[in-house]
# Entry
Amino acid sequence: MATLPFSDQEFKKISSIMYEAAGLSYNDSKKSLIHSRLAPRIQKLGLGGFPEYIAILEDESEAAEFQMAVDLLTTNETYFFREPKHYDLLQEELARLGNRSSIAVWSAASSFGDEAYSTAMLMSDMQVMGKIGPDWSILATDISHRVLLSAKEAVYPEDRLRAVSPERLRRYCLRGDGPSQGQVQLQDKIRSRVQFGQLNLCKPFSGMGPFDVIFLRNVLIYFDPPTKSEVVDRVLAALKPGGLFFLGTAEGRVPCSTPITTVIPGAFRKTA
Ligand SMILES: C[S@@+](CC[C@H](N)C(=O)[O-])C[C@H]1O[C@@H](n2cnc3c(N)ncnc32)[C@H](O)[C@@H]1O
# Structure
């Protein structure tokens, strides 16, 4: 298939559309990445080239295609109990919160829901052991409608649950057979504990929280430094004072105005 031409001007236009709408930031070194992610889509749609695709991205009635472009330009990689030390700390934190009236957790760039459902398994176990009460909730949000639909289905390739203990697999999962072999379906008792919703972290939002714990892991990589700080402050506004805040360990500490202290790598406590 012939390579689709992609001018610097078209690259700048797509970068600016993605930056304005979703905070995704691409410097000049990312031109070939954008080309390689979007050109197959343009060809699949039977369009003439990037100018036609840009027109679609700018057309507000083409929200679904805009979503598709965001999906193609970001990675949704995630898996259950990613960064186990974060879940060890979460368990200590939940035990500390104990049987207080309610506990609220937010997975703020949830992708396919692995992070939220891992948390639900942990919280269910703690409830059964009497370490927390029954009144707990988990909200999972993402910009991508597609990943949210799949998250609600809660069907995963087995490999994504490689860090889930055999006891939890028995307690919370159903293994597929026949044509579903190699897939795992989460049981309703876990699925029903997570609420999913669409949210763009780069736009102002209201009515969120307050949460006791927030995960904002492995999403800031797409944003430039001012957007990272803006998003972190916006998200931290929904965290209770004293609440726990997780970033991806590799993301380091992001400058922000909200006072936080480091607990362990990638985990912070809001101090005021
Ligand atoms: C790599 S996944 C992270 C999943 C999970 N938090 C983890 O650490 O395993 C990044 C997610 O961020 C989402 N995302 C990208 N830009 C976003 C935005 N502006 N607002 C909300 N979510 C966004 C993507 O759709 C993707 O599902």
About this structure: The mean pLDDT is 95. Strands lie at 103-107, 136-142, 155-157, 173-175, 183-186, 194-198, 211-215, 239-246, 260-264, 267-270.
